[in-house]
């Protein structure tokens, strides 16, 4: 099996569909405490799912935009310059960058 971003997208897309069905099922619940509880659980699951998808993409070498939560997968045409499809944040490739600057410790 080819573990690439397409595979990740499909897997997370399927999970997203499950959440959509759950949301529709939730609407059938009577108004009250349980419905609120279920809605909250689904909302949290959506955020976790989005974050897990972003982290999977990061593991595959994609950059993440952390200007917002959940983090968004940034896109690149050349694997050097990256752009966030949500907020437009960009990472520009710099030729002589000090590699120590990339580990967020400095
Ligand atoms: Zn962004």
Describe the secondary-structure layout.
Layout: H1 5-26, H2 33-59, E1 64-65, E2 72-73, E3 82-83, E4 90-91
> If helices are DSSP runs of H or I spanning 4 or more residues, what is the number of helices?
2
The biggest sheet, with number of strands, parallel, antiparallel or mixed sense and barrel status, is:
2 strands, antiparallel
Question: What's the total number of strands?
Answer: 4
Specify Rg, calculated over alpha carbons.
18 Å
**Which bin fits the share of residues in helices?**
40-55%
Structural class of the secondary elements? mainly alpha
User: Any idea how many domains?
Assistant: 1
State the separation between the terminal residues, measured CA to CA: 39 Å
Dominant shape:
elongated
Ligand identities: zinc ion
Task: Give the low-confidence spans.
Answer: none
Tell me what portion of residues adopts beta-strand conformation. 5-15%
Average predicted local confidence, pLDDT: 87
Enumerate the strands of the largest sheet in spatial order, edge to edge or round the barrel. 1-2
Helix/strand order: HHEEEE
Describe the structure.
There is one protein chain. It contains two helices and four strands, in the order ααββββ. Helix 1 (5-26) runs antiparallel to helix 2 (33-59). A hairpin with a 6-residue loop joins strand 3 and strand 4 (90-91). It has 106 residues and is mainly α. The structure holds zinc ion (ZN).
Keywords for this entry:
106 residues, mainly alpha, two-stranded antiparallel ribbon, 2 helices, 4 strands, elongated, binds zinc ion
């Amino acid at each position: 099996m080819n573990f690439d971003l397409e595979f990740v997208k499909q897997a997370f897309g399927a999970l997203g569909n499950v959440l959509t069905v759950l949301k529709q099922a939730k609407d059938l619940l009577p108004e009250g405490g349980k419905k609120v509880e279920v809605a909250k659980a689904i909302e949290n699951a959506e955020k976790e799912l989005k974050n897990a998808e972003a982290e999977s993409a990061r593991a595959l070498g994609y950059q993440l935009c952390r200007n917002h939560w959940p983090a968004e997968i940034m896109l690149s045409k050349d694997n050097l310059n990256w752009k966030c499809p949500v907020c437009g944040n960009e990472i520009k490739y710099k030729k002589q960058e000090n590699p120590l600057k990339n580990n967020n410790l400095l």
